[in-house]
Amino acid sequence: MNLRKLLVVAVAAAAMFSSSLLQAQDQKKGRGGGMGMTVERIEQAVGSLSAEQKTKIEAILAKVREQMQGLQGASQEDRQAKMREIMASSRTEIRAVLTPEQAKKYDEMAAQGRGQGGGGRKKNQ
């Protein structure tokens, strides 16, 4: 019976470790972090980005992640309001890095995201 318990514990530990490992890999690839916004996703939506654009957008997204982490101690209402401000500001900053054609495609992507539970704001805001 003790061997059986040991085996169950070992299997559970292995499952937890592999789950943590997969989450870490997803975050490295830009799929984690809660926001869902990555340079790769933006490039997929707007077309090819220059190296300079990628660098600038990565800096913006890093700043957003840092600002979001700073909200952990706030009340839910305050956190949500501040998150909306951060996201609106980051969209403006990212648009400024893009060409007019890319900005139009970016706006379409952002509007789609908001329509799928990403804030539910009207398109003209």
Oligomeric category: single chain
Biggest beta sheet summary: none
The number of E-state strands comes to 0
Number of helical elements: 5
Indicate how many domains the architecture comprises: 2
Summarize the structure.
This protein is mainly α. Helices cover 74% and strands 0% of the residues. The protein has helices at 2-28, 39-46, 51-69, 76-97, 100-115.
Can you offer a commentary on this structure?
With 125 residues, the protein is mainly α. It folds into two domains: 1-32; 35-115, no CATH class. The protein is built from five helices and no strands. The chain is elongated and about 65 Å long.
Descriptors for this entry?
125 residues; 2 domains; 74% helix
Topology record:
Elements: H1 2-28, H2 39-46, H3 51-69, H4 76-97, H5 100-115
